[in-house]
Amino acid sequence: VNKDLPMVELTISNAKLMAEVAADANTRTVGLMNRFSLRTDHGMLFVFSESQPLAFWMRNTFIPLSIAYIDSKGVILNIVDMKPKDESTHPSAGPALYALEMKQGWFRERGIAAGDKVNGLDKAGRAKH
Question: What is the 3-state secondary structure (H, E, C) of 81-113?
Fold first, then answer.
């Protein structure tokens, strides 16, 4: 389980959230594995070193999640719902620099969709490797 990761506040439309920042290979690999809950309006931001097609799966992940793939300009490319422990991959709709995982339905409940801008990503810093 990832512990003591840096936190960053992000805003999408009028919705605010707190995201743990996973910005290196180890923390990105572990992600939200082996956790059983997420606090309200909390999630995890994955930061990559360059824009690339991304795909996530849910191995050892017990919380139903929605993932937003975000390009280098902070625009959401696509949002995908992922089932717990599902090992099929869920790809980005294009080259993404970030991925944001929230509790499943979080984006939908707030009317957030592809094309929306995520503000505050600059505060997350750059990927370490």
Answer: EECCCCCCCEEEEEEEEEEEEEECCHHHHCCCC
- Residue 3: its pLDDT value, please? 87
The residue to which tokens 């809950």 are assigned:
37
Question: Which stretches of the chain score pLDDT less than 50?
Answer: none
DSSP one-letter code for 123: G
Whole-model pTM? Answer: 0.97
CA 86 to chain CA mean position, Å:
17
33 token code pair: 């594995």
CA 57 – CA 71 distance, rounded (Å): 19
Q: Which residues pair with 46 in a beta bridge?
A: 22, 99
Residue 1: the pLDDT is 87
Compute the distance between CA of residue 65 and CA of residue 74 in angstroms, rounded to an integer.
Answer: 20
- Establish how many alpha carbons lie within 13 A of residue 66's alpha carbon, considering only the half-sphere containing its beta carbon: 18
| CA terminus-to-terminus distance, the chain | 19
The H or E element that residue 50 is part of is strand 42-56
